[in-house]
Amino acid sequence: MLKDHVVLVTGGGSGLGLGVARYCQAAGAEIAIMEVSADKAARLREEFGPGVLVVQGDVTRLADLQACHDAVLARHGRLDALIGTQGIFDGNVPLMDTAPERIDALFDEIMHVNVKGYVLSARVFHDLLRASEGAMVFTTSTAAYAADGGGVAYTASKGAIRSLVGQLAFEFAPHVRVNGVAPAGIANSQLRGPRALGLEAQRQSDIPKDAFLAMFQSLSLMQDLPTAEDHGPLYAFLASRHNKIMTGQTVVADQGLLNRPVLTRKA
Ligand SMILES: NC(=O)c1ccc[n+]([C@@H]2O[C@H](COP(=O)([O-])OP(=O)(O)OC[C@H]3O[C@@H](n4cnc5c(N)ncnc54)[C@H](O)[C@@H]3O)[C@@H](O)[C@H]2O)c1
């Protein structure tokens, strides 16, 4: 699927982005990964070796993105796909349990990573993708479609990505295709909570595996909690030149979670 493609994954240090990066490499791509955490960047260098460009950087910082752009260009001379997977969670704290004076910092923190990071990276990497007639694939969530997938800040940020995909597909057509993926649950995610609420040490992976699986199975039609790698084929297709049929769309990859029964509760 990705032979002769150069693919950059932002936020690829763990969870979804790491699984998608592994899948893309196995599907034939030359991959590059940008990740904010120094520890995760070091682990990526160990896992992938010197053949894979790992850039430690923050997608909310223009200078970091420009450095990543220049490093990709120097190493590969081109870029065929930008896959954005970075994100942070808001702890699913209800609005009325949030101190009013924390809302400003909470929104800045979540929106900067979950929305501004995607806007800035789209702006910075557009020239390379325009040259290759390439693709952008951005990550939203079922939280953009239904209540209780997060609190107000996370949900608003994921709704913003769903809209951003449409706007960028319009602005960048016909040269760059822009699509989104909205996952539901992901095994082995390290999605963290917000500093603004003192929840930065909270990780999705802290939830006991059995409890998370039971909750997922009670809501979902498909019963296997997908891994990050399971999302790989969908991202790879949307990132590839084989996608001649879609732009401006978000694929809801939710294991049937949003297809709620009207009358019958499944056992
Ligand atoms: N975990 C889930 O169940 C789930 C469900 C739906 C959607 N998502 C979305 O999937 C995406 C990946 O999340 P995950 O669950 O794999 O979590 P994760 O924390 O394992 O992966 C996200 C990665 O992004 C990195 N990152 C965070 N801020 C960054 C920044 N400013 N610059 C560069 N990198 C940064 C993190 O360090 C981390 O390595 C997120 O956008 C998340 O909202 C997750």
From TrEMBL:
InterPro entries, A to Z: NAD(P)-bd_dom_sf (IPR036291), Sc_DH/Rdtase_CS (IPR020904), SDR_fam (IPR002347)
Does the UniProt entry include the keyword Oxidoreductase? yes
Molecular function GO terms recorded: oxidoreductase activity, acting on NAD(P)H, oxygen as acceptor
Q: Which keywords has UniProt assigned to this entry? A: Oxidoreductase
Q: Does the keyword section mention Oxidoreductase?
A: yes
The family this protein is said to belong to? Belongs to the short-chain dehydrogenases/reductases (SDR) family.
Annotated protein name in UniProt: SDR family oxidoreductase
